[in-house]
């Protein structure tokens, strides 16, 4: 997400990649009017729904407090060094992910295109989560709450308001509201079902909200970020104050912070910790790299890196206290152990917590506040992903796009419209399976491959020299060592596990569709390499080490605009 930028471009340093007149882009690039705005935008981009439901779920599944040990270790070994790397390359090149990666390593310029593709695919199904939040928000203005009892037309004879996963023959009121009222889900991906018109209309409303917030670019988004980035913390703190006073909350918090040390022997715990750091901060999605391209050339990269990454992790831990205190309260009410309360994936937010609201004083107020907070968290991250697509295409085809659409507002509207149409399968009765399939093969499979090649693409030696040029000194030896370790670490955690939703394992043909979704992004990496080898003269080593800053004889459009065949 981009926050309000200064409209006075000044006489700052011209970016390295603006040498060629062949680049089809605006003549100059604005900078942040105040650096605090970039910091807030980065926090808003990194902090999202994953902090609220994915972190507590993984922490619970991995043994409570034992998960915090590898999580914090991965933060310092994986998260901070990679974020520093992305912010540095974006700030130095002053370009979006496509042109930034092309300028660093022409052979792997497809990594930049792949990051844009991943952001676009994610923004399609990510807005479905915002749609669910809006649906629950609208449903919260009822007394009693629709998931508070089993006296509804969609409830089954097995519905109970007093147990969660405690029996194989019962389901809670909140589970049935999620599955049978909102989703009306089918029994598997083989049954498409019909379009859920209520969800489809809310999906359109969600995209309208996104468009209204970003259609003016940095001007309109800047007016939104101060609220959307800060409001969730107000709600989380208010919920925590309320929850810690509930009976049983202490047991939930104890489960959260006291480790089960035997869990640390499991490789899955460490893989989950690395994946959470990766997805939470947003490494490889291109959002933070694009935002850092609007920084002033001499901006302190380390300060922004530490601020964004540490606040992101502290937010996850704060959300953990909120969620696990609610777990303790639910365990007290239902008389079952805490380890039997968690559900898979999005259900942590949309099943477990609504069930906790049902037993809280002034349930409607807490429900409205919580789902409005989810809306703010989702909008922040959605801004960033849509902006990556818009900025990258405008950088590459500014003149052509303006000839077609005349105004940037119409181009942004076209992007939002296409993404909305592509999201229709996610709001059908089969939608939850489509959502899970897209999320597994994009946020887990694709992003791991992308990160591996991104670290390789950004030559550590050259990046260190670039940082010295901007800040006056090379990165700390800690960062340079971690960049090398990260290559080995990411390679070791690239593990394929078939997608599943709760106990449902997708059939082979659905897994094939999932791989097609993954290839829609990572296929650009080999295609970009083939394109470079075909067009640039010299040996393979010369192409890899090619630096257009010292060899201007090569037409820069070949490197910086890989989507342009000329």
UniProtKB/TrEMBL annotation:
<dbReference type="InterPro" id="IPR000175">
    <property type="entry name" value="Na/ntran_symport"/>
</dbReference>
<feature type="transmembrane region" description="Helical">
    <location>
        <begin position="224"/>
        <end position="241"/>
    </location>
</feature>
<feature type="binding site">
    <location>
        <position position="381"/>
    </location>
    <ligand>
        <name>Na(+) 1</name>
    </ligand>
</feature>
<feature type="transmembrane region" description="Helical">
    <location>
        <begin position="441"/>
        <end position="465"/>
    </location>
</feature>
<feature type="transmembrane region" description="Helical">
    <location>
        <begin position="269"/>
        <end position="294"/>
    </location>
</feature>
<feature type="transmembrane region" description="Helical">
    <location>
        <begin position="306"/>
        <end position="330"/>
    </location>
</feature>
<keyword id="KW-0812">Transmembrane</keyword>
<feature type="transmembrane region" description="Helical">
    <location>
        <begin position="477"/>
        <end position="496"/>
    </location>
</feature>
<feature type="transmembrane region" description="Helical">
    <location>
        <begin position="508"/>
        <end position="536"/>
    </location>
</feature>
<feature type="binding site">
    <location>
        <position position="280"/>
    </location>
    <ligand>
        <name>Na(+) 1</name>
    </ligand>
</feature>
<feature type="transmembrane region" description="Helical">
    <location>
        <begin position="365"/>
        <end position="390"/>
    </location>
</feature>
<dbReference type="InterPro" id="IPR037272">
    <property type="entry name" value="SNS_sf"/>
</dbReference>
<dbReference type="GO" id="GO:0005283">
    <property type="term" value="F:amino acid:sodium symporter activity"/>
</dbReference>
<feature type="transmembrane region" description="Helical">
    <location>
        <begin position="197"/>
        <end position="215"/>
    </location>
</feature>
<dbReference type="GO" id="GO:0005886">
    <property type="term" value="C:plasma membrane"/>
</dbReference>
<keyword id="KW-0479">Metal-binding</keyword>
<dbReference type="Pfam" id="PF00209">
    <property type="entry name" value="SNF"/>
</dbReference>
<feature type="transmembrane region" description="Helical">
    <location>
        <begin position="110"/>
        <end position="138"/>
    </location>
</feature>
<feature type="binding site">
    <location>
        <position position="377"/>
    </location>
    <ligand>
        <name>Na(+) 1</name>
    </ligand>
</feature>
<feature type="transmembrane region" description="Helical">
    <location>
        <begin position="410"/>
        <end position="435"/>
    </location>
</feature>
<feature type="binding site">
    <location>
        <position position="46"/>
    </location>
    <ligand>
        <name>Na(+) 1</name>
    </ligand>
</feature>
<keyword id="KW-0915">Sodium</keyword>
<feature type="binding site">
    <location>
        <position position="312"/>
    </location>
    <ligand>
        <name>Na(+) 1</name>
    </ligand>
</feature>
<feature type="transmembrane region" description="Helical">
    <location>
        <begin position="38"/>
        <end position="56"/>
    </location>
</feature>
<feature type="binding site">
    <location>
        <position position="51"/>
    </location>
    <ligand>
        <name>Na(+) 1</name>
    </ligand>
</feature>
<feature type="binding site">
    <location>
        <position position="47"/>
    </location>
    <ligand>
        <name>Na(+) 1</name>
    </ligand>
</feature>
<dbReference type="GO" id="GO:0046872">
    <property type="term" value="F:metal ion binding"/>
</dbReference>
<feature type="transmembrane region" description="Helical">
    <location>
        <begin position="68"/>
        <end position="89"/>
    </location>
</feature>
<feature type="binding site">
    <location>
        <position position="44"/>
    </location>
    <ligand>
        <name>Na(+) 2</name>
    </ligand>
</feature>
<keyword id="KW-0472">Membrane</keyword>
<keyword id="KW-0813">Transport</keyword>
<comment type="similarity">
    <text>Belongs to the sodium:neurotransmitter symporter (SNF) (TC 2.A.22) family.</text>
</comment>
<dbReference type="GO" id="GO:0089718">
    <property type="term" value="P:amino acid import across plasma membrane"/>
</dbReference>
<feature type="binding site">
    <location>
        <position position="380"/>
    </location>
    <ligand>
        <name>Na(+) 1</name>
    </ligand>
</feature>
<keyword id="KW-0769">Symport</keyword>
<protein>
    <recommendedName>
        <fullName>Transporter</fullName>
    </recommendedName>
</protein>
<keyword id="KW-1133">Transmembrane helix</keyword>
<feature type="disulfide bond">
    <location>
        <begin position="150"/>
        <end position="159"/>
    </location>
</feature>
<keyword id="KW-1015">Disulfide bond</keyword>
